[in-house]
């Protein structure tokens, strides 16, 4: 795959070309496009699902005891949340916690265990 370039990088590079600098219409359009990109990126905020997932991860961490191994099924039973009904959801949350470095993941034969980091 070739090197990827963002629209911001593209528009900025185009604005450096002498022919574009000389053409006020092109220059104006590119500057407007850059402003729109800035507005779009500034308006991004966390969705309801993302906020709820963060809350669930905190709840899971509070329920876990350091030094104890848990399976997704055990965490699902401990969590007892109405909006979390599947092991896949718990697994996704746990893997996010592993990525954050708050939980360790251990695979023993076919079972996957998670333990809280001290």
What's a quick, concise take on this entry?
It contains six helices and three strands. The model has no long low-confidence stretch (mean pLDDT 89).
Textual characterization of the structure:
This protein has 118 residues and is mainly α. The chain has two domains: 7-42; 48-116, Arc Repressor Mutant, subunit A (Orthogonal Bundle), CATH 1.10.10. Helix content is 60%, strand content 12%. The chain contains six helices and three strands, in the order H-H-H-H-E-H-H-E-E. A three-stranded antiparallel beta sheet has the order 1-3-2. Helix 1 (7-15) packs antiparallel against helix 3. The chain is elongated and about 70 Å long. The model has no long low-confidence stretch (mean pLDDT 89).
Secondary structure layout plus pairing:
Layout: H1 7-15, H2 18-22, H3 24-42, H4 48-63, E1 69-70, H5 72-79, H6 87-100, E2 103-108, E3 111-116
Antiparallel strand pairs: 1-3, 2-3
Order of helices and strands: HHHHEHHEE
Number of strands: 3
Distance from N terminus to C terminus (CA atoms, Å) equals: 41 Å
Shape: elongated
CATH architecture of the largest domain: Orthogonal Bundle
* Total individual domains: 2
Main β-sheet, in a few words?
A: 3 strands, antiparallel
Q: Any low-confidence stretches, pLDDT <50, length ≥5?
A: none
Radius of gyration: 23 Å
Describe the strand arrangement of the main beta sheet, using strand numbers.
1-3-2
């Amino acid at each position: 795959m070739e090197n990827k370039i963002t629209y911001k990088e593209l528009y900025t590079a185009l604005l450096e070309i002498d022919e574009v600098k000389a053409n006020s219409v092109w220059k104006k359009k590119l500057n407007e496009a850059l402003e729109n990109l800035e507005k779009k990126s500034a308006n991004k905020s966390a969705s309801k699902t993302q906020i709820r997932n963060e809350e669930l991860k905190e709840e899971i961490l509070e329920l876990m005891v350091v030094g104890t191994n848990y399976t997704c099924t055990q965490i699902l039973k401990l969590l007892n949340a109405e909006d979390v009904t599947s092991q896949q959801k718990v697994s996704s949350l746990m893997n996010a916690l592993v990525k954050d470095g708050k939980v360790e993941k251990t695979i023993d034969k076919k079972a996957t265990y998670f333990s809280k980091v001290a």
